[in-house]
Amino acid sequence: MNLYQIVAKDILRRKRRVLYAALGVVIGTMTVVGILTIASAGQAKILKQLEQYGPNLTVIPAINNLDMKLGNLSMGTLTVGENYIPEDQLPVIRQIADSKIREALKITDEGDIATIAPKLFENTKVNGISLVVVGVEPEQERIVKSWWDIGKGNYLDDTDQVIVGAIAADLLKLNVGDTVSLNEITVKVAGILKETGASDDYQIFAPLATVQKAFNKENVISSLDIRALCNACPVEMIADSINKNVPGVRAIAVKQIAKSELGLVEKMNSLMFALAGITLMVGLFGVVNTMMSSVHERTKDIGIMRAVGASRKQIIKIFIFEAVVIGIIGGVAGYVLGTALAYLIGPLVFEGTAVYFVPQYFPLALAVSITVAVAAAVYPAVKAAEIRVADSFRSV
Amino acid sequence: MLEVRSASKIYGEGPSRVVALDNVSLEVENGNFIAVMGPSGSGKSTLLNVIGGLDQLSSGEVILDGKRIDGYDENALVEIRRGKIAYVFQQYHLLPSLTALENVLMPLIFAGDGKNEKEALAILKRVGLEKRAGHKPSQLSGGEQQRVAIARTLVTSPGLILADEPTGNMDQKTGNEILELFKELNEEGRSIVMVTHSPDIARHAKEIIYLQDGQVIKRIKKEDSTHG
Q1: Total domain count for chain B?
Q2: A138 and A155 in contact (C-beta within 8 Å)?
Q3: Any domain includes B80
Q4: Is A7 in CB contact (< 8 Å) with chain B?
Q5: Percent of chain B surpassing pLDDT 90
Q6: pLDDT tens digit sequence for A191-240
Q7: Domain co-membership, B32 together with B139
Q8: Which chain A residues touch B82 with a CB distance below 8 Å?
Q9: Are residues B149 and B163 in the same domain?
Q10: pLDDT tens digits for range A77-125
Q11: Residue B89 domain-assigned (yes or no)
């Protein structure tokens, strides 16, 4: 038998008191866990939405418009520069993007990191109707346009296939299995996209090589989309670096909207943390309060222990140990209740968001709860240690 | 041996000033058995408390085995309570959440020797309670609780046992049994100072001190013939 077993027995006898003392920590920890869980669900939702934005960067040919003037007379604008990006710039751009991401994430593994989806836009007539045919790398394009849904048929998997935007298919009365000719090359309709609400609906997508061949544009592309690996990736830095190092192209980061939305989440998180902190403080004083009354209640017991040889340190240890038990109760209950709370109100905060419990918050809840309980116990413990044996028996 | 020299204890100040002990001197030779008698408020319990360091003296000295202990700080007093002086109280003062055996074990736990359950059990047997070892105080009679309390003092084998009306809550028969136990302990060589208001109990002691208004008004020292 040791000191801790004495405390454990005493706690078992005073279950209700101890649970009451734990209540303050439970509520505080519950709030923290609840807020964190809801916030993580919200963040997950926003990040998912961000992915819907598609590419993080778009690279287009650098075209300069020069105002032509004669004296004070404007003569219109002259477009200077190429309309295409040479395909051999792709590895250079990839190298820049990957190295910036590696730097940001502190990873060293080899291989491609960013998804790079080159495109070649060509105006053409299909069945007598003018439209844009887009040459794409099927695999990369699919990653960049995660919102694409194939309405009918299949996605591109061969060089002599096309997929058709929903409205274009309507206008051209195209169906899966039909053939169309792009200049001299005849291709088959592999699938038809569901409506996206974007310009994709009016376009036809074919493998890049096919389009390059059909329109005699080998080795050039019109633009490329870059999708970084992560949402924290330094897209502005990548854009800057491409602009500085690759002549003839202009890289634009398209993440600004996403950023401001994430910033909002962060602000909301700090507000919630402040709230949780206040709840914890209130809980702390609750524990101090119940612990103090527990000290008064147990004045006699403390006197007995002192009389039979307990030192002041041992009395303090007894109360701190009790606080640890209270902290463990608070941590476990706070985690469970906080998660339940998140499940309950999370969907109300971020409409329709699925809330998932976060196992990593369990040790966090325990740590927070035990810290608060022990901090709350210090003053009562010291007070308990100051009790004098003779006084303790007189007061009873 | 314990010596009290001109001990005074004053509670409060001004009009509420109470002199609980007024210049009391006392010697407890090793192996002595002193009964302290007197009416309520005569300072009996205060005397016991200051002897054992449970309460501070206002003036005077307490000397244990040649060392002044009246000025000891809490840490030093802990050492005295862990083997030199032990207490038995009228209210038994057992911890309600612990069994009889655990209560007896408690001083050893605080002294860092909590594994010595054999010793504690042997002592419980010595006071006739080995069959009650697993009972909580609430399941024991007053006499049994006091035996547990006495057993608790014995685990640290103290030279001096201070008992504050140990039979005060008991009927005569039970009281006599407890008294017999104290006499046995005294015969083993332990010094005992026992506060009591019962002349029947006190007459078994080797020395009786009468207190009134904090002063010693009478001392009776008996011959060894009173044995038994």
Answers
A1: 2
A2: yes
A3: yes
A4: no
A5: 68
A6: 999 988 888 888 999 999 999 998 888 889 988 888 876 656 777 888 88
A7: no
A8: 309
A9: no
A10: 666 566 888 888 888 888 888 888 788 777 776 777 788 899 999 888 8
A11: no
Least CB–CB distance from A311: residue in B78, B87, B105: B78
Q: How many residues does chain A have?
A: 396
Q: The tokens 């019109």 sit on which residue?
A: A222
Q: Of the candidates B155, B175, B205, which is a domain's last residue?
A: B155
Considering the domain architecture, whether residues B80 and B186 belong to the same structural domain is answered as: yes
The residue among A47, A105, A106, A114 whose CA lies nearest residue A251 is A114
A2/B117 touch (CB, cutoff 8 Å), yes or no: no
Q: Is B89 on the interface with A (CB under 8 A)?
A: yes
Task: Report the candidate in A309, A243, A322, A305 with the shortest Cα–Cα distance to residue A10.
Answer: A322
User: Which of B120, B137, B155 is the endpoint of a domain?
Assistant: B155
A219 phi-psi bin (left φ>0, alpha ψ -120 to 50, beta other): left
**Nearest-Cα residue of chain A relative to residue B109:** A2
Among B163, B156, B203, which residue's Cα sits nearest to residue B182?
B163
pLDDT higher than 60, residue A256 = no
Instruction: Say if B174 falls within a structural domain.
Output: yes
> Are residues B134 and B163 both part of a single domain?
no
Highest mean pLDDT among A245-254, A372-381, B163-172: A372-381
- Residue B220's DSSP bridge partners are B208
Residue whose pair of structure tokens reads 């001190």 in the numeric block: B209
Contact B110 A12 (CB under 8 A): no
- The reply to whether B27 falls in a domain is yes
In whole angstroms, what is the distance from residue A47 CA to residue A41 CA? 10
The answer to whether residues B62 and B165 belong to one domain is: yes
Residue written as token pair 């005992």? B192
Closest alpha carbon to A1 in B132, B8, B78, B118: B118
**pTM of this structure:** 0.70
Neighbours of B91 (CB within 10 A): 17
- Enumerate the β-bridge partners of residue B85: B160
Same domain for B168 and B76? Answer: yes
- For residues B151 and B211, membership in a common domain is answered with no
Q: Any chain A CB within 8 A of the CB of B102? A: yes
CATH number of the domain where residue B38 is located: 3.40.50.300
Q: Do B138 and B166 fall within a single domain?
A: no
Tell me the residue range of the domain where B101 lies: 96-155
The pLDDT value recorded for residue A44 is 76
